[in-house]
Amino acid sequence: MPKTATSRYDVAEHLRTPEEMAAYLEACLEEANGDAAFIAKALGDIAHAQGMSQVARVAGLSRESLYKALSGERVPSFDTILKIVAALGLKLHAEAAR
Known about the structure:
The chain is mainly alpha-helical and about 100 residues long.
């Protein structure tokens, strides 16, 4: 029986357009169940797809700070989240809960 080769899945490889990035963030917001670190990690995936150095520069953060904020191991401040969302070319919106 031949061996099956596998590779690690990287969602950032599938976030090529602003629409794909927005849809991914929207899906993560729906699935987060109040887990802010989960949302931070999702933003990290999108930032990785766009290039961390570029996102850090536009957001006015150091690259190291950006990695820490979006690691999923901590909850960044809302101010930081807003800077990152804007740097990613995305915007947040609200709607009435169902």
